Amino acid sequence: MRKLKVILLSLLLVSSFACAGNKDYVATIETKHGKIIAIFFDDTPVHKSNFIALAEKGRFDSTEFHRVMKGFMAQGGDVFTKEKLPPADWPTLPAEINSKHFHKRGMIAAARQPDGINPEKRSNGSQFYIVLGKVYSEEELLVNMSSLQSAFMKYIQLGSQEELKNEYIRLYDAEKFDSLTTLLISKRKEIEESLNIKVTKDITPERIEAYTTIGGTPHLDGEYTVFGQVIQGMDVVDKIAEEQTDFRDKPISPVFMSVTIEKMPKKKIEKQYGFSYPESK
Q: Which of 30, 108, 175, 209 could be cross-linked to 228 through a Cys-Cys bond (beta carbons 3.0 to 4.6 Å apart)?
């Protein structure tokens, strides 16, 4: 009889864990422009639980999207300034940088202090940003621009490249920096062959696909913890990014937020928001 009870209890526990695994937390970030719906990743547990705890206690409410840069990101959730906590006392979170999660459009990542004072890349304990970014060509993604620039300067010193050198000087003097970038990239292959060097980066097909279609901010990869994703409402983030800003990139007309959390079955999340969990693929 006791053995039967143990078996029944074990089955009940397994069933409970299975049910818990079939549900997830959904955040609704409400703004004057509309609602942003987001989920958070299980493999960034510290950041996920921290965001949920702050939201459930209402601590995000009345914070702003205080730093907005069109074509880059929208940052908000400055709980500790709202609560008048001195910056020196702001809590931080350990980095949970995971190569699976990168800065494609719609990703949510944690803000942080720069490496000079934060070499461990610890995250701010409340502030987050939503990635906007831009669409890249495959060539732009593959090229290591710092290496290419250095190699290009060596290349144009060759006597055979006088015409290219003059073109570089002309574009530089005219401050046509986008055209300069295009020129450098167009010469990549011949520079690699001539100087016998490699100026390209290794990047996964998944990232190439994302950055060349929906876009993002690839230069932030590996530097900040990406811990969530917008699953509905990127049009709202775009509207926030259209706000007129001051010299600090802060919207002149404040964009306040309130955040609520709801636990929902994953199947419902997939059906309602068109999001697909990796285990469902």
A: 108
